[in-house]
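dumping this here before i forget
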Amino acid sequence: MTYRISNGSASIETTPRADGPLDLQLLRTFLAVHRSGSFTAAAQLLRLSQPTVTTQIRALERRLGHALFERLPRGVAPTTDANDLAARVSGPLDDLETVAFQSHPGTESEPTAPLRLAGPAELIGERVLPALAPLVAGEKLRLRVHTGLTDDLLEGLRAGRHDLVLSTVRPRGRAVLAEPLMDEEFVLVAAPSWAERVGLARVQRQGCAALCGVPLVTYADDLPIARRYWRHVFGVRLTHTPELTVPDLRSVMSAVVNGAGASVLPRYLCQRALLDGSLVALLEPEDPPFNTVYLARRPGASDNPHLELVRSHLTRAARTW
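structure:
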């Protein structure tokens, strides 16, 4: 028998082996596993136990008459049949989730759960929180902000611990949807005293050779941002050992402002210091290196109505960053 789900604009059809309609919960669980790549992660997203998720997937596989996932040492991999089924059911199920949520709004006695937002500490502090402050004040937005390394934050998003993540790398896989939010440009900077000693015209003529003898300040011994700048702008590999390593980019900027040496910083972080003269750009190349920041979320309808509000607000605000 053929089973059809229809929401007025889309439909799903599949042919189970037994009579009777497929349980929507089985398809919902299947889609969560397909997107997250793990029974454990799907259980967290659906607020179910892992044995329940396993039982539901096995029940669906029995109904359809074929395996949907290959068990791996870590997580699962979808079969070709699973990919075909996901392609058919994802759109309609997401639409149904949205309709179900909109038809059951919260009440005054049941405040909306806080939206869990995560990203790099400097970007959160310099750009995101100033942009969202009016929503907290005027839209009754409840926000819980977390910071950390991008890979850890994306893993938390897939596992359901975050709702939105600002990612400095493009997320991969079916479990995350990502849209470009902004480009962070990188700038080679130093305090005015170092800029005078080195000479901006000399940097323009000699490139990185003019920086010999200038201490490098960084947040990691392998000079991750500076290495990229050297390769992109100067066309050489940076092999220098940093004179000063500090915990984060804000500490880097503080040290450089106070004359410790030179570093490469995102322009959004040092823009005010450049404007007030406490930092000087040692070089302004025509093609500066930059990195795209993505706004990442899980696919499907969110159970937090503020997610779309925050997403659209940040997207608009980022046009002026």
